[in-house]
């Protein structure tokens, strides 16, 4: 037992990683406890295995639809805290640190120009919530609504809608970029939001539009119909259930590609 304990200590000092772990139980290290006249050997999970299990658990708590991996891998520690988005970042971090499942809290509505990092901030929020064991889903709304339309034929619309109705924290990314039809606005988006409001579940948003611009967007359908009352009805579930924060600054997508071209 002592020989095994000493050998595994040596292995851990020169750890080759979990996949190549040479210990008797991969990802574990032996511990010796003396109870005269016997020595007892036990096995404890090593820090690398604990970290991997935590990452796996967090990944299972974060689900995304049509959101790039680089967005979902963002964290608050890697996002620049520049002045044009400081208030929004502070509000998001406060939400993530104080929200508890079953606790009624207003959501967050981030709006501003393209490329300023609104989606990355929401990805970081999902990660922080996962660290606290709170499930979330982040959905790129235009693509999700197209998926729902395609699901009409196989009868799976309700199944897809119910997932977004029930998740503790829902992030709707890029609301206002979808094509407006009465069915999408009233039967899909309206149903999801009404259900969440009734259940006291918070919804977070990113958009290029402020509240008034989004209301105008919902007023006009793709056929040219004007439906002001229905637009106001859906905005009631957004405007009064969230806190709005403008996110400004430089277009980071543009600068990203400009830097790549210069380096090439």
List keywords for this structure.
264 residues; 6-stranded parallel beta sheet; alpha/beta; 49% helix; single chain
| Shape summary | elongated
**Helical proportion, percent range:** 40-55%
User: What is the radius of gyration?
Assistant: 24 Å
- The averaged pLDDT comes out at 87
Oligomer: single chain
How many distinct helices? 11
Count of beta strands: 8
**Poorly predicted residue ranges:** 257-264
Main sheet: strand order = 3-5-6-7-4-8
What portion of the residues fall into strands of 2 or more residues?
Answer: 15-25%
What class do helices, strands and sheet pairing give? alpha/beta
Q: Give a quick account of the main beta sheet: strands, pairing sense, barrel closure.
A: 6 strands, parallel
N- to C-terminal separation? 58 Å
Element pattern in H and E: HEEHEHHEHEHHEHEHHEH
3D structure, described in words:
- The chain has 264 residues and is α/β, with parallel strands linked by helices.
- Helix content is 49%, strand content 17%.
- The chain has eleven helices and eight strands.
- The chain has helices at 2-13, 47-61, 69-72, 86-98, 118-131, 141-150, 157-166, 182-199, 211-219, 228-239, 252-263, and strands spanning 28-35, 38-45, 62-65, 107-111, 136-140, 169-173, 203-207, 242-246.
- A six-stranded parallel β-sheet has the order 3-5-6-7-4-8. Strands 1-2 form a two-stranded antiparallel sheet.
- Helix 4 (86-98) runs parallel beside helix 5, helix 7 packs parallel to helix 8 (182-199) and helix 9 runs antiparallel to helix 10 (228-239).
- It is elongated and about 85 Å long.
- The N and C termini lie far apart (58 Å).
- The model is unreliable at 257-264 (pLDDT under 50).
């Amino acid at each position: 037992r002592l020989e095994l304990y000493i050998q595994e200590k040596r292995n851990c000092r020169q750890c080759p990683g979990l996949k190549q772990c040479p210990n008797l139980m991969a990802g574990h290290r032996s511990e010796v406890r003396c109870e005269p006249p016997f020595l007892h050997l036990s096995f404890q999970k090593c820090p690398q295995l604990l970290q991997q299990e935590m990452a796996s658990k967090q990944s299972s708590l974060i689900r995304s639809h049509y959101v790039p991996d680089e967005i979902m891998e963002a964290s608050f520690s890697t996002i620049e805290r520049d002045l044009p988005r400081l208030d929004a970042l502070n509000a998001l971090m406060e939400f993530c640190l104080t929200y508890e499942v079953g606790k009624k809290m207003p959501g967050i509505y981030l709006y501003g120009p393209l490329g300023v990092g609104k989606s990355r901030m929401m990805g970081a929020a999902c990660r922080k919530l996962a660290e606290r064991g709170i499930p979330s889903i982040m959905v790129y709304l235009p693509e999700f609504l197209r998926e729902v339309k395609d699901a009409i034929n196989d009868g799976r619309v309700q199944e897809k809608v119910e997932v977004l109705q029930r998740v503790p924290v829902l992030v709707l990314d890029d609301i206002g970029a979808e094509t407006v039809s009465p069915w999408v606005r009233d039967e899909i988006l309206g149903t999801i939001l009404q259900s969440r409001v009734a259940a006291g579940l918070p919804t977070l948003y990113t958009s290029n539009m402020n509240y008034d611009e989004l209301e105008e967007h919902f007023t006009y359908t793709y056929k040219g119909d004007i439906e002001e009352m229905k637009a106001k009805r859906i905005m009631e579930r957004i405007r009064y259930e969230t806190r709005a924060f403008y996110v400004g600054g430089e277009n980071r997508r543009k600068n990203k590609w400009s830097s790549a071209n210069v380096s090439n």
